[in-house]
Design a protein that fits this description.
Strands 1, 2, 3, 4, 5, 6, 7, 8 and 9 form a 9-stranded mixed beta sheet that branches. The chain is built from 1 helix and 9 strands. It has 163 residues and is mainly beta. The termini are far apart. 11% of the residues lie in helices and 63% in strands. The longest helix is centred in the first third of the chain and has 18 residues.
Length: 163
């Protein structure tokens, strides 16, 4: 006896459901650690990877490392190259913002530093950073972020920007 169309469709559905049930999404990783002056800071980070396009050709890879908490760190690279080490502010920009003990917002901008991407496996990007920043309104007020590191699941897929 030949199987009918209904039986074939039912079999295909069971196979699809069985395969789908076996696929498991990896847990999201979002660790970002750093020393800000003498204080150790832990944040939940995010990272996006962009392919820079010029004349329909990929000319480089850039990263946007950030978090969405009351204390924020944002590093955006713009190197126009396929490098894994970015010198700031030449190859991008970085800001560090927080609310001080008086309730006032404070923002610092990078005048020096580096972001190093050490690797990417299973969409998890691992890297390090250090920054020297000055206050947005008082450039004599300097802040140093040292021993920064991150291990974060990559957001999005195939993000592009036109150069």
């Amino acid at each position: 006896m030949k199987p009918n169309v209904f039986e074939n469709a039912l079999l295909a559905l069971f196979l699809f459901l069985g395969i789908s049930a076996c696929e498991k999404e990896l847990p999201r990783v979002s660790e970002m650690h750093m020393n800000v002056g003498d204080e150790e800071v832990h944040l939940q980070g995010r990272i996006q990877k962009y392919r820079s396009i010029r004349n329909d050709e990929v000319i480089g890879v850039d990263y946007y490392l950030y978090n969405q908490e009351s204390t924020t760190l944002r590093i955006l690279t713009q190197a126009f190259d396929f490098v894994n080490e970015y010198n700031l502010p030449t190859d991008g920009e970085a800001t560090y913002s927080f609310i001080d003990s008086l309730g006032d917002a404070q923002t610092y901008r990078a005048i020096g530093g580096q972001l190093r991407v050490r690797g990417e496996t299973n969409r998890i990007v691992i890297g390090e950073f250090e920054l020297v920043l000055t206050h947005a309104r008082n450039t004599l007020d300097t802040l140093v972020i040292s021993e920064g590191n991150f291990e974060i699941t990559l957001d999005g897929d195939q993000l592009y920007w036109e150069r």
